[in-house]
């Protein structure tokens, strides 16, 4: 964390020593103005480096998401099957819920954001009702996570589903001797 903070501070110091306060305020993109002043024609490479940085960040996010589901399942916040490890690959295979090309989740996220903003703008009342409907997830949270004394039939059903998925996905609990 300290290295990142030092990096940001040094970047800002470089901006302020190269660009005047007026130019800084008038600039649409400070990094581009900085690179034009410092690098001349090579400043065209800055957007490419920014895009590569974003790509690297997304790449790290892709690896982190499956581990997020894996740990949430281990803590009891998601179904137990997501905390299992593949027998041969030793990875949390069930936690990688869906494998699709990267542009599909990006397009999906952009579309969802667009729809939410458009809904808030065009009909805030109905959007509020939708938000209230979303809050119905709170009882589901208490039913599946908080409530410890579930009926026997519910636990048996959950165990059967977990065992079936273990066979299909070839996974075992992480502390299993079968790894």
From TrEMBL:
It is found in: Membrane. It comes from the Eukaryota. The keyword Nucleotide-binding does not apply. The chain crosses the membrane at residues 44-72, 93-121, 127-147. The keyword NADP does not apply. One of its GO terms (molecular function) is L-amino acid transmembrane transporter activity. It is a multi-pass membrane protein. Gene3D superfamilies: Amino acid/polyamine transporter I. Its main location: membrane. Keywords: Amino-acid transport, Membrane, Transmembrane, Transmembrane helix, Transport. GO terms for cellular component: membrane. This is Cystine/glutamate transporter. It comes from Myodes glareolus.
């Amino acid at each position: 964390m300290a290295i990142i903070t030092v990096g940001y501070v040094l970047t800002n110091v470089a901006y302020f020593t190269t660009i005047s306060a007026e130019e800084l305020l008038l600039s649409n993109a400070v990094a581009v103005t900085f690179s034009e002043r410092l690098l001349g024609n090579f400043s065209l490479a800055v957007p490419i480096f920014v895009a590569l940085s974003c790509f690297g960040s997304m790449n790290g996010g892709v690896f982190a998401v499956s581990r997020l589901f894996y740990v949430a399942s281990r803590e009891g916040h998601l179904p137990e099957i997501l905390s299992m490890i593949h027998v041969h690959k030793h990875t949390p295979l069930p936690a990688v819920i869906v494998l699709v090309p990267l542009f599909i989740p990006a397009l999906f996220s952009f579309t969802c954001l667009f729809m939410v903003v458009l809904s808030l703008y065009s009909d805030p009342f109905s959007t509020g009702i939708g938000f209230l409907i979303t809050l119905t997830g709170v009882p589901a949270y208490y039913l599946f996570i908080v409530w410890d004394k579930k009926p026997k039939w519910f636990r048996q059903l959950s165990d059967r589903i977990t065992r079936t998925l273990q066979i299909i996905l070839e996974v075992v609990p992480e502390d299993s001797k079968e790894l």
